[in-house]
Each structure stands twice: as structure tokens, then as C-alpha cells.
Amino acid sequence: MNTTPSLLHLDSTAGPAGPSVSRQLTALFADTWRDHHGTAGYRYRDLAAEPVPLLGAGYVTLGRRLGEQGTVPPAEVAARVRDASEEREWALTLPLVEEVLAADTVLLGVPMYNFTVPAALKAWIERISFPAAFTDPRTGESLLRDTRVVIVTARGGGYGPGTPREPFDHQAPYLRAYFGDLGVRKENLFLVHAELTRAAAMPALAQFTDLAAGSLAAARDQLLTLATTTPRRPTPALA
After folding, report:
1. Is residue 141 exposed (0-12), middle (13-18) or buried (19+ Cβ within 10 Å)?
2. Cβ of 17: how many Cβ atoms within 10 Å?
3. pLDDT tens for each residue of 123-139
4. pLDDT tens digits, residue range 83-93?
């Protein structure tokens, strides 16, 4: 049995690595993780540089038909496609699903765009959300129940509890609900926030520069701790 820890690292910001806070923080996690666990299990995908194609009609027809047939595992989907459109859509989908299934930890870099997640990330989410892709056909349980998901958010303003803009946050609640519904256990889902990242550049936020620096430092500390911790999946019982 392969016991090498595995990390799937995804960035979704359109911004370049230098000024991008989300890219800086996910790179900190990934670099630290590789220092502790090696490079063999590391996989990187830049969702902005290489966008996941939007869903086509073949995805919808295939997903709807198979969803009506119950739990069809990914390994059996290809045998059930009916035309070139469905074949193309599944060829675009399966590698992304397999990457998630193979990962012990999924690391996401997510800037806040217009109070929610970037379109690049949403396209990835929509494609991996194929019916039963993460469902154990024998038990009906989620195959991601023991997967650790670390979400790094970067927000130009302040959206924390009690702030005036807390109701505008459609980023963190959405991601928490999505991965929770996918079957990721609450104790395995980590949202690490860097708030007020535009404080130093925007006069209206200048009074919050100390808060911004504290938020960034706290995010870095939390990520360093998470990156040096090996998630442990239960050992399968022998038949």
C-alpha cells in the first residue's frame, strides 16, 4: 500500500505570484509541505493560467442520465457515454476527479472576487461535481470523508464576524457548505483567512494596516502548522 503523503495544490487568482497574497500563502504551505514530505506526492494546477473548460451539453446529459441510474463509479462512466459530446466532457472531467481522490490534502488559494470565489475556481468545482464521483458505491459514504481540505482566502477588506461587511461574505460560507456537502468532515476542513490585504494600497483602509499585518502573520503561522502535520487516513481493514 502506498503511504506517501499526497498534496493537490490549486491556485485560482488571476493575479501574478509577486503581489498575490493567496499565491504567496499557498506557496508557503506547499514549500513547507515538500520540505517535510518530499515531492513525490505533490501535484499543482493553476486554474487561472490553464482554465478548466465550462460545462457543455454533453456533461449535463451524461450526468443527468447516470444520476438517475444510482451510484455509478467513475471507472464505469466511460462505458456508458453515448456520443462524442459526452465522451469529450468525461475526458475533461475524469482527470480532475482522480486528482482529488488521490490527494490526502487539497490546498486551495482563493481570493475574494466581488464577494465570492473566482470564476476559474467555480469552473473547477462545477466539473468535479459529477454525480457520484466521490461516493463509495458499496456504502454510499463519501470517499472524501478523510481528505483534508485547506482553503486559503485573501480578502481586500474585512469580512470577519461582527464587521459591517460580514453579510457580504459569499466566499467562505459557500466553500464551507460545498466541501461539507461533498463529504469532507468538519474537522478536516480548514479556512485560513488573510484579511484587509489592500489596506496598505487604499487610503480608505490605511487605518487598518496593523490589523492587516496581524491577519497575514496569523495566516502564515496557521499554514506552517498545517503543512507540517501529516493527515492520517484510517488503515483499511483486511478482508
Report:
1. exposed
2. 12
3. 999 999 999 999 999 99
4. 999 999 999 99
Could you give the CA distance from residue 2 to residue 103 in angstroms, rounded to a whole number?
12
Joined together, the cell numbers standing for residue 185 give: 468532515
Is domain 7-53+103-227 classified as CATH 2.10.70.10?
no
Residue 236 has pLDDT above 60, yes or no: no
- What is the SS3 assignment for 232? coil
pLDDT above 60: residue 234: no
What gap in Å lies between CA 7 and CA 119, rounded to an integer?
A: 23
Give the domain ranges of the chain.
7-53+103-227
Q: How many residues does the chain have?
A: 239
Distances (CA, A) of 145 to 164, 172, 182, 183: 35, 20, 8, 5
Strands (E), the chain: 7-11, 42-46, 105-111, 148-154, 189-194
Task: Output DSSP code: residue 7.
Answer: E
